[in-house]
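Final report, closing paragraph on structural work. Over the funding period we assembled a curated collection of sequence-structure pairs, and we close with a single example.
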Amino acid sequence: MARISPLMLAPPVIFAAIAGLFLAGMMRDDPDALPSVFIGRPAPSLEGAAPMRGQPGFDASVLRQPGVKLVNFWASWCPPCRQEHPELEALAAEGIPIYGVVYKDRPERAQAFLDELGNPFSGLVVDEKGRLGIEWGVTAPPETFVVDSEGKIVYRLIGPAVDVMLEKRLRPAIDGAE
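Its predicted structure, as stored:
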């Protein structure tokens, strides 16, 4: 009788393990959401971030002030950032403070973007090298964080704040943080 090599069992075992991981991922409450380790924790430091020239800056103490606020990582080279910009202006017009982080972009290009489309931000800092993005766990712009009165992150929206993402995810998070 021929013996089966243990190496012959490796491919089906590996396939079963990968299939199990995919199945577990599909069974989550929201399979499209990427989890964030920052939810429920204080917002990371803004140390080393420089205010954008000609714009008010902000620091971590601003994020601990009363009221809900948004921190939006964006860039002038980012098409989804352009897409979400009118929505950010509408949120700012409603009185929701939005603090912007210019992510991996040059300040002069970011200023040209704001000159063209308007400035919804209560404060702006520049993260040219992406260090702040690493601290906050940003994968790619745009990303928006909802921060409560205690300076804790209550929600992270990956992608543009438009349409369904704005109405079904971001607004409920803003309402829940107040």
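The first strand starts at residue 50 and ends at 51. The helical segments are 6-26, 60-63, 79-93, 107-117, 131-136, 163-177. We thank the funder for supporting this effort.
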